[in-house]
Amino acid sequence: MAAEAAVVEALRDARAARLGAGISLRRAHVADAVVHCEALDFVEIVADHYFIPAPAKNAELAALAERFTVIPHGLDLSLGSAEGPSTPYLRKLAALVETLAPPFWSEHVAFTRAGGRAVGHLAPLPFTHEALDVLVRNIAQVRDAIPVPLIVENIACPFDVPQADMDEPEFLSRLVDRTGCGLLLDVANLCYNALNRGRDPFDALGGYPLHGVVQCHLAGGHRSHGEWIDSHAFPVPEPVWELFEEVVRRAPVGAAIVERDENLPPFRELADEAARARRILERRVP
Amino acid sequence: MSLHGLQCALAELFTTPAARERYARDPERFMRGFDLSERDRAQLEALAANAIASYASTLVRKRRAEAARLLPETRAALGAAFAAAFERWAQRTNLPDGPRRYAADAAGFCRHLLAERQNLPSGVRAVVAAELRALQPSRWAALRATFPGTAR
Question: What is the pTM of this model?
């Protein structure tokens, strides 16, 4: 319990640190980020990309860590798995977090494996009391291995598993309350999930545990067969920027990351988006 | 362990076209293969088939995007045919597990192209073969796998 209190305290410090704005760094942009480090306040890396040690990747990490706060972002811990988080993944993640010594790290409210089968992507949890208990238990296990604050991210999913006990905002609120984890609010995911369910994203926002938001993700998706897909393939669209401004008005968010995985533009374009996010964050009265 | 059964069933439905076909044909029989409570069964039954199919196509799209990133020359050489060829590959295979799973998937796709697409122009075959060679784990990685204690 004392250890948990220490983690919660550390999370408060992390929030107070207000990291500013950066990008989720892909290898194609590492050299630019190092050379133009003044363009970003911090960077996020996909933890999985640095699990297989290689001299080039070690040098990359060292160069980044010299210039930035580097936040590891996990994809495949499977935090919501009833069979528990992936132990080999957790071991590698713990080593990476120890190397980078970030103020916090992040993972998703999802499962990515079950019964020995890798889904390969973030699969939705049913918003039930049972799934919540599993998450709370798994987060406690993860904290034993990684004594650095964890912030958890809402995923994009075109549907909810039916017959839930609650909706996603309530599920996340309970999770934040029970674990003391911060929230990595993916504004694009919130926006697309609401649109795909015929809801107004601004109305939906009110139900989320905004007091717990530590960091935001911003990205651009596209529409296919009438459905919004969070493809990270396009610039952040205006509705997501507007929703982010609303989040910043209402939540103690001190950090934002622009994500792009497909149609990678030149580094400068992403840095410009990060600069826009920074301007929005700076408008917030502390 | 009820949630575990539901997650196993969902994982299979999301990743395996044959499982989706089995489920569509006979949901009762499919669900008997998992440790599901009444509620889990109700949750699965209430999940629309097109929601599962839509999520499954998202997974394939992600696999294809990763393959395209890892195989830029193959993608350029195949042009518009790349997407359709990868879809056919993904219909028959699951994403491998492990930290190099997308590289393994892309390598499998290359082997599939070389083995099954005998009519590929020789220039395209050469590009695919070259990218397949480049995807093989490096000697460094092989050394590490042999001697796990090798320093980072």
Answer: 0.89
Domain range for B75:
60-146
| A241-252 residue pLDDT tens | 999 999 999 998
Q: Which CATH number fits domain A2-283: 1.10.10.10, 3.40.228.10, 3.20.20.150, 3.40.1160.10?
A: 3.20.20.150
Which residue from B minimizes the CA distance to A162? B43
d(C-alpha A180, C-alpha B31), whole Å = 37
pLDDT tens digits, A157-167: 888 899 899 99
Helix segments in chain B, DSSP class H: 2-15, 17-25, 27-32, 38-46, 49-70, 72-78, 81-92, 101-116, 122-135, 139-146
Which residue is associated with the tokens 């390969």? Answer: A120
Domain assignment present for B138: yes
Minimal-distance CA residue of chain B relative to A74? B99
**Interface predicted TM-score (ipTM):** 0.89
- Chain B contacts to A (CB-CB under 8 A): 1-4, 6-8, 10-12, 14-15, 39, 42-43, 46-48, 51, 54-55, 58-59, 61-63, 65, 69, 94-97, 99-101, 138, 140-141, 144, 150-152
Q: Is residue B83 located within the same domain as residue B40?
A: no
